[in-house]
Amino acid sequence: xxxxxxxxxxxxxxxxxxxxxxxxxxxxxxxxxxxxxxxxxxxxxxxxxxxxxxxxxxxxxxxxxxxxxxxxxxxxxxxxxxxxxxxxxxxxxxxxxxxxxxxxxxxxxxxxxxxxxxxxxxxxxxxxxxxxxxxxxxxxxxxxxxxxxxxxxxxxxxxxxxxxxxxxxxxxxxxxxxxxxxxxxxxxxxxxxxxxxxxxxxxxxxxxxxxxxxxxxxxxxxxxxxxxxxxxxxxxxxxxxxxxxxxxxxxxxxxxxxxxxxxxxxxxxxxxxxxxxxxxxxxxxxxxxxxxxxxxxxxxxxxxxxxxx
Length: 309
Description:
The chain is α+β, with helices and mostly antiparallel strands and 309 residues long. The chain is built from 7 helices and 14 strands. It has helices at residues 17-20, 40-46, 67-77, 129-134, 178-193, 210-213, 258-274, and strands at 7-10, 59-62, 86-91, 98-103, 105-106, 114-115, 118-119, 139-143, 172-174, 201-205, 234-239, 281-285, 294-298, 304-306. The protein has a 5-stranded mixed sheet with strand order 10-11-13-12-14, with helices on one face. Strand 6 and strand 7 form a beta hairpin. Helix 5 (178-193) packs across helix 7 (258-274). The longest helix has 17 residues, at 258-274. The N and C termini lie far apart (46 Å).
């Protein structure tokens, strides 16, 4: 969007430990005149602490749908922060911990399938009025070369979830739900508790713009037209502690195969049992010539499973 800058301001040590326990409840405000509220998974996570169920979130999304977040932006950074999209950093004066409030660029800023020079495309069913009310993304995170390494949590940064094309185009725009990031952090914690020394979980595919996703729809590409990746609540992941670009040998049988991915899936099952509000899809994918085995994880709000050993 021409003339839009992604303002980053440092909080003046105003974020104290008590603030990190402050609920950020979403507003029941409507979108495009409808009565839509946030999905159940977001309502649950935002009624918890800022650090999420995992205790590892380092950023929260803010938009007019979330009155608590707008109030915090206004209190910490002034009136202009409540209306200007950007990443606003605050610091806990006691622990020195940094926390980011990300004010989203409104979804309506997209024009003719693009935001600025960045190609987004059009979502399936977007022409219907009901789609705008029920399924339209809350807004876009504007990602620049300067802010792409902003931590979202202990293990994930903004750049981890970016769409994989348009490498030379900046700024980029990202749709993401923090419920997904929280679930991935819970996944790492569960694996660690089970004895797997997970230090790095690779996001092979996070957000996909509709214009990128449609290129792989069909038997050849293997993507679904209504892929959850387009809504910012899905990620294809694998454990990659040695950073060689492939799943690690988690079961230590001397091979990297679908059995290692199944270990990750078993942790997903435990997380959804303990946190029903984070329920979603999960699928196993075998290795191909292009990639190793991986697991799809999402927070769509209903259980779905696919792929077998």
